[in-house]
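#struct-help
A.M.: can someone run this one for me? Single chain, 231 residues.
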Amino acid sequence: MNENKILIVEDDTSLLTTLKYNLQKDGYNVTTAIDGAEALETARKVKPDLIILDVMLPKMNGFEVCRILRKEMIVPILMLTAKAEETDKIVGLEIGADDYMTKPFSMRELLARVRAMLRRAKMADPEPADGKTLLKINDLEIDPARHRVSLREKVLGLTPKEYDLLVFLARNGGFVFNREQLLEKVWGYDYAGDTRTVDVHIRWLRQKIETNPQKPKYLITVRGTGYKLEG
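D.P.: on it. Structure tokens below:
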């Protein structure tokens, strides 16, 4: 049995049953909730390793649930939306979701996303033989051993994907990566050409690590190419 605990929050009982069956078949320990209030209560009790969260829920919608959970815990969140509108997708990412899928979706793709998200979240950062675990870029300090980022000694609250993105760029300081490369290296799968998620995460990282996000000194945009981290 896989030790990873997954919380599914979905009010469509047919889809909920299908998701639960396939995830359990894949070896996951699955818990479910059918509305926003129950989602918060269950997440606090179970402390899942990943949450699959529908947007349209009774009592409290998925966006609000995501906002609250982001203040309380660091857990990968995969949002499900029935709408193909770009606005809904971006809102989900901006409030802290790590990924999103638009219904209808293939179960095979969802399982691949789940595996990739859990793999990234659980990825250990081995301590180098020389003991130099810290990554320092001017006032920015990344401590992989503690999974912690601080700016001028103030600890920053990054989402798992923001952290992964920052660490990857820090370990490849000065190198420019386009959006497709970042999706492959950080998200761990092909996003089928939808690269807006990279821009959203870059923007939110800048809000947290830059003194002036409009004139960044760390996360630099290389026009027509991609992004890089500079000190």
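A.M.: thanks! The chain has two domains: 5-122, 135-229.
D.P.: also worth noting: The first helix runs from residue 13 to 25.
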